[in-house]
Amino acid sequence: MTSSRRPRLLMIASTAALGFFLFGYDTAVINGAIDALADQLELGNGMKGFAVSSALLGCVAGAWFAGPLANRFGRIPIMLASAVLFFVSAIGTGLAFGVGDLILWRVVGGLGVGAASVIAPTYIAEISPAAIRGRLVSLQGLAGVTGIAVSLFVDAALAWSAGGAANPLWFDLEAWRWMFIAEALPAIAYGLAALRIPESPRYLVSLGREAAAAEILHACTGVADTAGKIKEIRRSIAVDHRMSLRDLADRALGLKPIVWVGILVAISQQFVGINVIFYYSTTLWRSIGFDESNALLITAITSLINIGATVLSLVLIDRVGRKRLMLSGSLGMATTLGIMALAFSQATLDAGGTVLLPGLWGPVALVSANLFVAFFGATWGSVMWVLLGEMFPNQIRAGAMAVATSANWLANFTISTTFPLLAAFSLTASYGFYALCALASFFLVRWFVQETNGVELEEMGNAPRDSKPLQREI
Length: 474
Fold this sequence. Notes:
Helix content: over 70%
Structural class: mainly alpha
Radius of gyration: 22 Å
Number of domains: 1
Shape: globular
CATH architecture: Up-down Bundle
């Protein structure tokens, strides 16, 4: 691939990755709004958790149906539909008048998030040459954490401008409402940008539009033998136009072994508790003595650390490989989460119910939380999405990606919904559980995940040297 083609390919991949920017923005924006929202709507711990995680129900459905719909209608139409869902959710959530319609609009946004989380890695993987595919797919991870950071800084700026998230800002609407409404702008940008990028060549081949596919392949990757490449694609997706979720089935295990591996990897990414940091960190830091302004600032700084770590993963992923990065991340997360559990085991409660961490334990918890985010961002945060976009054979990629991504969102929903109740019971137990899950993820990757670095998508499904029998049987 010549250097002259890289700017165009980077632009195309960046446009697709905008879906992950909105994914990050939509899922994290509630961090700064939740306390004011909960007070205004008089939500208890259980309903507070559900208000935060309700979007994830939409994510599950969006991810589940995105793969089959993308196979039927194409990748670009699904991006456009996601942009519309993001826009409608932003306006609806910001103008919500009760908890019922708030949850409804959060679910609508979740549909967009779920669809974007499937279509972005699938599309980028399908349009990228193998040599730089990891870095290009990692752009979605960078876009996602940038969306998280932008949403948290927008939260902090709006709360500061109004003198508090619960105070009115423009047009007599509270600042927390504007936190949601602001998402409408990137949603419009995503939709307009998606209209300017080409359809996936693999999807075009499945329609028999091989001339158009050849033109895109040559323009984006520089491949000279487009006929040979299209022949490979045609062979690998010979039955893709008839693909259904039944194609993932296996008599012995219910689903094909490689699909189970993808599901377990997707669940593991959430069970380390990363979104507890991005959904509840403002509440957490306020509970141990920081005021709202400082808690929002700490959360925003954490998001910058996440961006830096994700940039590091983008640099390393095609050099070090997916598997090695994920193994190191698992160990780093297990260690830092264990330290957080230890720190909160030293906590006491004052008369007002505020958590107090004596001596240096407060700074230890804060530093450990940020190191945890750094380990996650440099490894599992983006590398998992790259792996899921690569690891499945072409014949089942869209459907398997949909199932694995839905499992990821279900795991996210479980962790996010239960955290307020678990935290009220014991922060030590919460972070101890996440630490054990991080340790378990090390053995999952070590034993059952194959390296996909540098492997052409048409070759996925051939047994690698370091794979175990569970993944070889596809």
